[in-house]
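Example 5.3 — TetR family transcriptional regulator C-terminal domain-containing protein
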Amino acid sequence: MTRPRTRIQRRNRETILEAALEVFSAQGFRGATLDQIAEVAGLSKPNLLYYFPSKEAIHAALLGDLLDIWLQPLREMDPEGEPLAEILTYVRRKLQMSRDMPRESRLFANEVLQGAPRMGAAITGDLAALVETKAAVIRGWIAAGRLADVHPKHLIFSIWALTQHYADFDVQVRGVLGPAEPDPYPEAERHLERLFTRMLAV
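Solution (predicted structure tokens):
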């Protein structure tokens, strides 16, 4: 029987994962080292290795937690709700996550850009199954005449691309907008709401 972690153990584990998120999102998996993570965490390397046996184990723990968080807004899309309102709520939630969790977004993007060597099974498994479930919901809305005729999965891909861009390309977005628009998110939300409303309204 596994003994429950003490408060200090839980805190140290969270500290390591927070430090690893900082390092992995900036350096990528290949560029990150255990020494860097230990330094950011303020722990010795042997102490870090007490909690995680390898860089791969830390990365896997981060990605596992991240995917669950990342999928929650899509899970909450309600088949019984008003279609356009449900999709716009999803857009807003994804944009909010880009604003509040940019490092997590970049961590996921880096993993996918490398061919998803550590997340392939999750992408073709849980993620693909959830997208198929929600695509079926969208197809039902379209068939009932409650939503414009679009390709459901490509609609979801478009939402991912247009919201996560603000996290993954934050420097580019802010550099192009300049000091006149220091916070891109309010106008981004208005723009995306108009865009998807025009695309999807019957």
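Remark. The mean pLDDT is 93.
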